[in-house]
Amino acid sequence: MTSGLTGGVLDPSTLVGTFGLIGLLVALFVETGLLIGFFLPGDSLLFTAGVLVAQADPFVPLWVILVSAPIAAALGDQCGYMIGRAAGPAVFDRPGAKRLGPAQLARAQSFFDTYGARTIVLARFVPVVRTLAPVMAGASGMKYRTFLVYNIIGALTWGAGVPMLGYLLGGIPFVRNHIEIILIAVVALSILPLAVNYLRSRFRGHAPFNRPDPDTSMSPH
Description:
It contains eight helices and no strands. It has 221 residues and is mainly α. Helix 1 (12-33) packs across helix 2. The longest helix is centred in the middle third of the chain and has 31 residues, at 62-92.
């Protein structure tokens, strides 16, 4: 279920089994709130927690995870947003920046202006992207109220939905072993309409249907 980056001590079963609920909540906060947490396996941690809770001797009741995990995830994104809001412009304005510069900030601004709200929700289900999305939202100047609303929606959907999947479907080997791929596939299907609309708008913008209007200023001879 995990890759080499998440093996050993970062194995979800090891993390949850060793550190329990506190370890789970700290990992969720760090992954979504601090740029250094991009390597943490949030999806697998939540799913594994749901699987373990479904056992005969759960480490905590299911309702505790369904309440606490979304709170930790929401607080993490809030922290990421504040980091982006405070330090983002300084990072993007560095003259020597190669991969991070004013052009990236401008693209982020345009992207979040168009798809911002949905991006905050969908990014929850994509590793690494969920770490960067709140920082980019803050750096690009997304309105705080808009971010807050969709942050809460995303945190509830991800923080409660994935453990529930583990609780209900954890006994199915295929689901248990491919949860990250399954979630990414769901996100891909979710954004497909956005991609189609974008391509249509691009096509219409380049279509040669803009003919000049008749010259109505000509006076009769």
